[in-house]
Amino acid sequence: MSNSIESRLRRARQTRAKIAELKVVRLAVHRSNSHIYAQLIDGSSSKVLASASTLEPELRKELPNGGTVTAAAVVGKRVAEKARGLGIETVAFDRSGFKYHGRVKALADAARENGLKF
User: By its UniProt entry, which NCBIfam families does this protein fall under (predicted)?
Assistant: First the structure.
């Protein structure tokens, strides 16, 4: 593994350890070159409650490319709607060691605008 990947995973471990202490639902984000994924994970049992990604068939139809800021905003909106459907309002944001910039920031902003608090 390269140093940048190890550094990102180390940052992710530190963040997850802190969130685990809080025992709250976490909004975990993963970003690849061509897609972005978001999951709501229960703080006590580590079960996935809801997820959204640019790989979902409905989103594939409306988005020409899953690796854009626009696509990330759509995924953020979608995961926030699913969270509200489950009665979840407050989450801890887990950016998985990625910089809070670009697509990760777009997803977070869209989730906030659609009712999630973090």
Answer: L18_bact (TIGR00060)
CA 60 to CA 57: how far, in whole Å? 5
- The CA angle 58-91-77, to the nearest 5 degrees, is 25
Q: With beta carbons less than 8 A apart as the criterion, state whether 50 and 79 touch.
A: yes
Q: What is the pLDDT of residues 49-97, one digit of tens each?
A: 999 999 999 999 999 999 999 999 999 999 999 999 999 999 999 999 9
Cβ contact 108:26 at 8 Å: no
Instruction: Reduce the DSSP state of residue 52 to 3 states and report it.
Output: strand
Domains of the chain: 3-113 (3.30.420.100)
- What percentage of the chain's residues is helix, strand, coil (to nearest 5)? 45, 20, 35
CB 30 within 8 A of CB 37: yes
Query: Residue 52 is encoded by which pair of tokens?
Result: 């959204």
